[in-house]
Design goal:
With 231 residues, the protein is mainly β. Helices cover 6% and strands 36% of the residues. The strands form three sheets. The chain has a six-stranded mixed beta sheet with strand order 1-11-10-4-8-7, with no helix packed on it. Strands 2, 3, 5, 6 and 9 form a five-stranded mixed beta sheet that branches.
């Protein structure tokens, strides 16, 4: 037996549905790559309300949206539909009001005709983004999706939420300068001055194993410079 002395009711946390499908497909996986076309695919389990609803995509740290979304081109659409077992991919509704600021892309649906996003339908679009100069950490390398309804006064009621794992960006040479000492054709043993900067450190190979002969050259990291044809 027990006796209730005090009682208080507290509202529980907001619970909302996940996305049925999300995919983020980059054209290039290179650090410091500007205006990289990245394709986005998603599917909602329930229909988005016809008025006052929004879809928002938040990129990992360092990514910046540089364009409005546009339709997938034919070269991208065919392999994407193959990835989705032949399911058709629809374009975004024409009535979407789009804003992008830094790593955030927001699409608002507030049309008088009530055109919105339907349930169990795969939508796709492409947008251009500047890739970061430094790889996001493993914990932060994720794309966050959410939908919500604007209820007034700057208050948003969340509806759907999902995370898509980020892709690994390869290193790049964001700056390189090649200065010849001579511009004379057929000049023998021409000397070039090469200045460059790497986006990632270039490490030596694994440490030597005791008892194993491994020449120092085999452990060295390499920078390969390929001249144009004829040099």
């Amino acid at each position: 037996r027990y006796v209730v002395l005090d009682e208080m009711n507290m509202p529980s946390m907001e619970l909302y549905a996940g996305f049925a499908n999300t995919h983020v497909l980059p054209t290039y996986r290179v650090l410091s790559f500007d205006d990289n076309p990245i394709s986005f695919l998603f599917e909602l389990p329930t229909m988005l309300p016809q008025f006052g609803a929004a879809l928002q995509v938040v990129a990992p740290p360092g990514f910046m949206f540089t364009s409005m979304p546009f339709d997938l081109d034919e070269s991208t659409l065919a392999p994407v539909e193959n990835l989705l077992s032949g399911r058709r991919v629809l374009s975004l509704p024409d009535n979407a009001n789009v804003e992008h600021s830094g790593p955030i892309l927001t699409l608002r649906f507030n049309s008088q005709v009530g055109n919105s996003l339907y349930a169990n339908t795969i939508y796709g679009f492409t947008a251009r983004l500047d890739c970061p100069h430094i790889r996001p950490s493993r914990e932060d390398n994720r794309w966050v999706w959410q939908t919500y309804v604007e209820v007034g006064g700057g208050v948003h009621q969340p509806l759907h939420w999902a995370e898509t794992p980020g892709f690994v960006l390869e290193g790049s040479i964001p700056q390189i300068e090649i200065l010849p000492f001579s511009f004379v054709p057929l000049s023998p043993q021409a000397i070039l001055e090469v200045n460059f900067m790497l986006s990632l450190p270039l490490y030596r190979s694994a440490e030597l194993v005791v008892g194993v002969e491994w020449p120092a050259l085999d452990r060295a990291s390499r920078l390969l410079l390929m001249p144009p044809e004829g040099f």
